[in-house]
Automatic annotation (TrEMBL):
Domain of life: Bacteria
4-aspartylphosphate modifications at: D77
CC terms in the record's Gene Ontology section: cytosol; protein-DNA complex
Transmembrane annotation, as ranges: none
Source species of the chain: Myxococcus llanfairpwllgwyngyllgogerychwyrndrobwllllantysiliogogogochensis
Keyword DNA-binding recorded: yes
Listed name of the protein: Response regulator
MF (Gene Ontology): phosphorelay response regulator activity; transcription cis-regulatory region binding
Any one biological process term the GO annotation gives: regulation of DNA-templated transcription
Domain Response regulatory: 27-142
SUPFAM superfamilies: CheY-like
Region described as Disordered: spans on this chain: 1-20
Coiled-coil zones: none
Length: 329
């Protein structure tokens, strides 16, 4: 087992801190019997300064970890030697009911997705990974769901459990329902592969505006109290702007993600307050910071696209469940 240490990267944080222990770090457990996949996943997630990454080569190795310490997100391969990934997710959710689980699979069929959701997973990832950023975005989305306890996700799991029980009892959905769910699965997978577009607004930073435009984003400068801020996908604001706290509080429970830029002269109190407000934070004011900003915005847009696609997938699963005739029908 390998444990990554929380990396001390100045002025970078994410949405972690979702655990009962009250720490800022969140724990991700990756389970796969392929050493290359384990290494890729661990290296990628260890770049996130607020994640602690654990790895295991089998379900049997993972279970003691799940019994002994809190895990915020479980990422497991579906086909494992011995106990399979679906069974591991079910056992892990029994041990830690608030944990989020992601299933790695080479091919997602309606039956495998229903089984994964029924066991307690809330998402899946196709391998080989076409875009490694998708894994990071899906882990981030899972951490948000864990914090918010999204009701839609729990309803999707319940629908999947009912559908799995009916299928096991010999009932089946009509062919059009199977086709519709398969179409939604392919659309969901495609949404994770494509470069996502979105509306980005910048408040009070000409440098950020220039960096994002040079990176090819559709971005515009907006005043702190403009109503249109609530209609964009990502709002970028710098700590040097005197209105950043008021703006962050106003948008905290609204649609857009708020990304705070911390200049090298940023006050430590500002940074701690941003963390308390659970804001995305990225260092700015250097060559490295300027290159990090477009990547962070790209990740936020990808994560939002994944969440929207997941809602559509949950809706399709609900329709599929309702299309299966009950034994008494």
């Amino acid at each position: 087992m390998r444990i990554s240490q929380v990396m001390d990267l100045p002025f970078e944080t994410g949405e972690g801190g979702g655990g009962e222990g009250g720490t800022l770090a969140s724990t991700v457990l990756v389970v796969d019997d392929e050493p290359v996949v384990l290494d890729i996943c661990a290296r990628l997630l260890e770049r996130e300064s607020d994640l602690v990454v654990l790895v295991a080569a089998s379900a049997e190795d993972a279970l003691p970890i799940l019994r002994e310490q809190r895990v915020d997100v479980l990422v497991t391969d579906k086909n494992l030697p011995g106990m399979g990934g679906v069974e591991l997710v079910a056992e892990a959710r029994n041990l830690q009911p608030t944990m989020e689980a992601l299933m790695i699979t080479a091919y997602a069929s309606s039956e495998s997705v229903i089984a994964a959701f029924a066991a307690g997973a809330s998402d899946y990832i196709l391998k080989p990974f076409d875009d490694l950023r998708v894994l990071r975005a899906k882990v981030r989305a899972a951490l948000e769901r864990r914090t918010s306890g999204t009701q839609v996700r729990e309803q999707a799991r319940e629908q999947a459990r009912e559908a799995a029980a009916l299928l096991a009892a010999g009932q089946d959905a009509p062919e059009p329902a199977h086709v519709a769910l398969e179409v939604e699965l392919r659309a969901y997978e495609e949404s994770s592969r494509t470069v996502l577009e979105g509306k980005v607004a910048v408040v009070g930073s000409e440098d950020a505006l220039r960096a994002l435009r040079e990176a090819g984003f559709e971005v515009r400068e907006v005043a702190p109290y403009a109503p249109e801020l609530e209609t964009v996908d990502v709002v970028v604001v710098e700590t040097g702007d005197p209105q950043w706290r008021t703006l962050a509080e106003r948008l905290q429970r609204r649609p857009p993600d708020v990304l705070l830029l911390a200049s090298p002269q940023a006050d430590l109190g500002d940074l701690l307050e941003a963390i308390t407000l659970r804001m995305d934070l990225v260092g700015f004011g250097s060559t490295q910071g300027a290159s990090a900003l477009p990547e962070k915005v790209r990740m936020l847009l990808l994560r939002r696209g994944v969440q929207r696609a997941q809602d559509r997938l949950a809706a399709a699963l609900s329709v599929f469940r309702r299309s299966i005739p009950t034994p008494s029908a």
